[in-house]
Specification:
The chain is mainly α and 251 residues long. The protein has one domain. Helices cover 77% and strands 0% of the residues. It contains 10 helices and no strands. Helix 3 (39-63) crosses helix 8 (171-193) and helix 5 (95-115) packs parallel to helix 7. The longest helix has 25 residues, at 39-63. Belongs to the 4-toluene sulfonate uptake permease (TSUP) (TC 2.A.102) family. Pfam families: TauE. This is Probable membrane transporter protein. Keywords: Cell membrane, Membrane, Transmembrane, Transmembrane helix.
Length: 251
């Protein structure tokens, strides 16, 4: 396989993560499938790639002061049990059932992001959040962890809408904070999945590209209006949902 393809895939995945704080996982699985991996291998490999991208983007966002560490770590920690349960469940469920559930979640998340409107400014990123409903936080965090383990994704495509729509977090701050959630969840999910299905060489190449792309995306993010970021996130989810639907129908 030409080296350019996995490098380009990694750069694209990382740029999406750095800009939007999510979406890398939902893109990683179909891209890795297109690179020739099986569904189990793509799901496990995506955890490594997304984790590396999340760490690289997070470092850049943290220097810009856009990360809410308390919410991010709490969301990630509460989701850990769900990530383990989801990983175990993934190997017991038919692939078509997994893909169908994936499409439904993508569509729901896209609807929430496109229906809502973020009009926050960069100054809003420094404002304190209203006191969250902790019961809602627990349920959302557990659900994000379950999705991470079950579908082999970082959970950002669910975490970002949850932080924006349920906790009223500004889009830039939510996308940066979601990388904390992703990093915790993919680490736990990877430990549950194990290394049996990982292609070391391909994973390393894609991961390096993802790290570079994530840093570039995080650097560019403050220059883009938050409403545009939110709409882009919603459209991205719809595109991936359409692609996965086509895969499901044609399989």
């Amino acid at each position: 396989m030409p080296l350019l393809l996995p490098v380009a895939a990694g750069l694209a995945l990382g740029a999406v993560m750095g800009l939007l704080g999510g979406g890398g996982g939902v893109l990683a699985v179909p891209i890795l499938l297109a690179l020739g991996l099986s569904l189990d291998a793509a799901a496990t490999t995506s955890l490594v790639v997304v984790g590396v991208g999340a760490a690289a983007g997070l470092a850049t966002h943290a220097r810009g002061g856009r990360v809410d560490w308390v919410i991010g770590l709490m969301f990630g920690a509460l989701g850990s049990a769900g990530a383990i349960a989801g990983s175990r469940l993934a190997f017991a469920v038919d692939d078509r059932v997994q893909l169908a559930g994936f499409v439904v979640l993508l569509a729901l998340a896209a609807y929430g992001m496109l229906r809502g409107r973020s009009e926050s400014s960069p100054e809003d990123d420094d404002k304190p959040l209203p006191d969250p409903n902790w019961a809602v936080v627990v349920l959302l965090a557990s659900g994000v962890g379950l999705v991470t383990g079950f579908f082999g994704v970082g959970g950002g495509f669910i975490a970002v809408p949850a932080l924006v729509l349920a906790l009223r977090m500004p889009m830039r701050r939510a996308s940066a904070t979601a990388l904390v959630v992703i990093l915790v969840n993919v680490t736990v999910a990877f430990l549950a999945h194990g290394t049996e299905h990982v292609d070391g060489g391909l994973t390393a190449v894609v991961a390096v590209g993802t790290a570079v792309g994530a840093v570039l995306g995080a650097v560019l993010q403050p220059r883009i209006p938050s409403a545009a970021l939110q709409r882009t996130f919603g459209v991205l989810l719809l595109v991936v949902a359409a692609y996965q639907t086509a895969q499901l129908v044609l399989a």
